[in-house]
Structures are given as structure tokens and as C-alpha cells.
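Predict structure. Chain length: 131.
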Amino acid sequence: MNIEDQLRYMQQELKNVETMLQKQIKEKDLNVQLLNDVEELNNMKEGDELIVPISKGIFVKLKLKEFNGFVVNVGNNVLLDKDLDGIKKLFQENVKILDENINVLKQQEQKLLELIDQLVNEINKNASTKN
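Prediction complete.
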């Protein structure tokens, strides 16, 4: 593989890492928002109105009668009851894992940028010695 091919490969790898990084950041932001939303549910009282999504872009309006906690799908349509602390812990653990993933991806991104810079310098050096 020549230097130009290596450079193209590294640039493609960088794009892949940046795409994964953006997805992880978006997922983390969503988990942080959900954690905040869960906190709001804890402050609701009987008769408060909720708007709950049932499909993409479709919501149902409900009035809170009684709040009995949360139900989590743990796979294979198995549902598990969780209280507020349990659901908060779940989101906090997700955020922690996503933060770790984001840090790893940022390190990979930095290494790829350094490698790309080295390859560009080598290409420029080779081009100047040919002239």
C-alpha cells in the first residue's frame, strides 16, 4: 500500500470514528435528558397532565392518577419494575459508559489525526524531493 492509499484509508477511518463519536454524544445527551425528565416525573401530582409518545410523532394526553414507578424492558419482552432510584441509576450508568466510550473515541480520533498529519508531511516531503 503506497502512502496516498494509507492516507485515504486513515481519512476514512477518521470519518468512521467521528461518526461513532457523534452517535455516542447524541446518545449521552438523550440519556441526560431522560434523567432530567425522570426527575420531573417524581415531582408530579395526581391530576397533572402528561403527554406520552406512543409512536414517532404521535402522542397521547393523560392525566396522572397514581404514579407506581417505572417498567423496564430487559430483553425478550421481559419487563422489570423499577422505582425512581433504580431508573436514575440505570441512566447514570448509561451516561458513565457513554462517557468512557466518548473518551476512547476521542483518543482514537487524536491518534488518527496525528497519523494523517505524518502521512501528509511525508507526501509533501516526497513531492519536494522529486522536484
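Summary: The domain at 3-130 is CATH 1.10.287.370 (Helix Hairpins).
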